[in-house]
Amino acid sequence: EHHLISKYLPLHASRRVLGPAGELWWLDLGTGEPRHRFAAGDTILGGAAIDEQGLCFGSRDGRVYRLSHSGELRAQWDAREPIVTSPVAAQEQLFVVVRSGRRYAPDRDTLVPRWDIQLGEGENFLSSPVLARRRLYVGTPANGLRCVGQDAPPVPPVWNHGLAGGPADDRPRPLQATVA
């Protein structure tokens, strides 16, 4: 039935009829029956980073979601571009790579961004970051595998100009900072 709907309706109309394209499901391991579901704003292509407090994942809607183990939304953050990779959880922060190659490090619980860095040029950053021995590694389309930092925020905090000018998350510029 869903195939027939999308065949005859334009894509945007199909999405309105069918609802979100991305859902995260919790299944009962014994029965296979769904226990909880969470609908994101678009497709979820990566995996979830799971810890003792809950889980985090990204979506093509550009958001990173923080959920409890029972599926309750705890926090979300908008990176303003599709996320097609899996986040990785470190001690106090997440590492998230967006499609254009910017790597963000939001706080693991609140998802408030701490810092970010551009990994290279292009639009096809599909490699999920990997954390090994407190070093972060990411595959890039043009520069191969890169070691791009440690599990610690830089000091002093960096104010990033954002892709379109201004801070990356529309916050006002801090009174004191270094400029990347």
List the helices and strands and how they pair.
Layout lengths: L1 H7 L2 H8 L4 E5 L6 E6 L9 E3 L2 E5 L4 E5 L5 E6 L9 E2 L4 E4 L4 E5 L6 E6 L11 E3 L2 E6 L3 E7 L7 E2 L18 E2 L1
Parallel strand pairs: 14-15
Antiparallel strand pairs: 1-2, 3-4, 4-5, 5-6, 7-8, 8-9, 9-10, 11-12, 12-13
As a percent range, the share of helical residues equals: under 10%
The geometry reads as globular
- The SSE order reads HHEEEEEEEEEEEEEEE
Strand order of the largest sheet: 3-4-5-6
Catalogue the unreliable spans: 4-8, 153-157
Number of DSSP-assigned strands: 15
Output the number of helix runs: 2
Overall mean pLDDT: 79
Query: Structural class of the secondary structure composition?
Result: mainly beta
End-to-end Cα distance:
51 Å
Question: What percent of residues are in strands?
Answer: 35-45%
Describe the fold and architecture.
The chain is 8% helix and 37% strand. The protein has two helices and 15 strands. Strands 3-4-5-6 form a four-stranded antiparallel sheet, with no helix packed on it. A four-stranded antiparallel sheet has the order 7-8-9-10, with no helix packed on it. A three-stranded antiparallel sheet has the order 11-12-13, with no helix packed on it. It is globular and about 50 Å long. Mean pLDDT is 79; it is low at 4-8 and 153-157.
Main features:
mainly beta; globular; 8% helix; 15 strands; 37% strand; four-stranded antiparallel sheet; 2 helices
Please sum up the structure shown.
With 180 residues, this protein is mainly β. The chain has helices at 2-8, 11-18; strands at residues 23-27, 34-39, 49-51, 54-58, 63-67, 73-78, 88-89, 94-97, 102-106, 113-118, 130-132, 135-140, 144-150, 158-159, 178-179.
